[in-house]
């Protein structure tokens, strides 16, 4: 892997250029939703069902609690990013969520801001989120949508599965609130690290040797210098962990809910800016010497390559009943 994984760079820049134009001039908050053990192991065997449950339950939790007049009493917007791995590339499904510090009133005529650096109670969020996850698991088990293998095979039995879920109804620590962003300008920098990232970045890789592949990891459970260390894996184990991050076909990693929902996003954004007395920014372009080209006739399609996320460029248009020509020769290609 001499050059490291860079196939998502162009897709990330294009996505960020679109999101920058939608940033509101308010404080943004960062929430993390996790799955308690042993649910990640079950999720590994039921990726589509559990990943959908995780993203929907986390978004529903924030939207419902925020809409409650006892908390915020507003319709909020949510951008959530699904991650399926940890620093050591082990299976660790969780959701990173970015939420503006406020929302639209029920009638849509006003903006309701949260109180300073406080968005919503983490304890209240945890209670509802935990219930949605466990109830969703029970429903899916009842209708036969979950499959169990190896160490989880006993969960095929409903009583055994209920026994696994029961202790989880009393645990805490499934929702974390991180420090709020220092203004909307800090949001793109964060999103650029998380939206299109791969399981291990270039600067974490150490050249491999006969022992295997070594890379740097960070243990978030520890503080101080000891949290940073290196891990060496055999080539086959490294590839297995790297592929854990792969989502089921058609699964969306990034989702927008609330007033950020795709159907009314532009109208809501315009309305909120009017309420806040803010100007509507001009949508920026992706600024990259490798993307902007001097040959203006070169057309780039709006959607990315389905394989690597890179840009699709039209190199030739074939008219009806015209046979495609052979690839250009070396001299012509160089020109």
Compact summary:
The protein has 335 residues and is of the alpha+beta class. 31% of the residues lie in helices and 20% in strands. Strands 6-1-3-2-10 form a five-stranded antiparallel β-sheet, with helices on one face. Strands 7-8-9 form a three-stranded antiparallel β-sheet. Strands 4-5 form a two-stranded antiparallel ribbon.
Features:
20% strand; 3 domains; three-stranded antiparallel sheet; five-stranded antiparallel sheet; alpha+beta; 335 residues; single chain
Going across the major beta sheet, what is the strand order? 6-1-3-2-10
- N-end to C-end Cα span: 30 Å
Low-pLDDT windows of residues: 1-5, 284-298
General shape = globular
Total helical elements: 9
- Order of helix and strand elements from N to C terminus: HEHHEEEEHHEHEEEHEHEEH
Tell me the β content: 15-25%
Mean pLDDT: 79
Count structural domains.
Answer: 3
Structural class: alpha+beta
**Mind summarizing the main beta sheet?**
5 strands, antiparallel
Q: What portion of residues is helical?
A: 25-40%
- The number of E-state strands comes to 12
Radius of gyration: 23 Å
Q: Can you give a write-up of this model?
A:
With 335 residues, the chain is of the alpha+beta class. The protein has three domains: 9-199 and 249-276, no CATH class; 200-244, no CATH class; 299-334, no CATH class. The protein has nine helices and twelve strands. A five-stranded antiparallel β-sheet has the order 6-1-3-2-10, with helices on one face. Strands 7-8-9 form a three-stranded antiparallel β-sheet. It is globular, with a radius of gyration of 23 Å.
